[in-house]
Specification:
This protein is mainly alpha-helical. The chain is built from seven helices and no strands. Helix 1 packs antiparallel against helix 3 and helix 3 runs antiparallel to helix 4 (91-102).
Length: 154
Amino acid sequence: MNEIAILEYVLVFLLWNMMIYWMHRIIHMVHIPYVTDFHWDHHRVITQEQHLGLHWSNLFLFNDTWKSTADLWCSEIIPTLMFCYFTGHWWVFIFYYLWAAFIQEGIEHNKDFDLYPLSTSGKWHLVHHSNSSYNYGIFLPIWDMVFGTYKRHE
């Protein structure tokens, strides 16, 4: 693989990552009927520690409650599928599926997990659940840093 191809993959990943960041941020900034309500259900489930964590239903991209699942589909899955369709980079969805089905639910809301600055999961993402004005990013904290919504966990 040459340097141009590697650069293309990195740029595609960063562009997709920024799109997911903005999807998440917009859901918090603008009330979108149902979509915003579904997202707040996700916040409620995590805050009340009813979170199921890794579960066989994750293989079908079903998380916690039906409203949390609708949130996942509206804010991440459907936008990712559209991104892949328009860019032709279907590897992004394969990457995302592997993440969502096998990894995300085990670490994203895990208070004992911290790979900052390599990952936005665990303690870093839980800052968002305690103050929804910060840390919208998925995977990388770069877009929160660029757009001023970054807050380091304690």
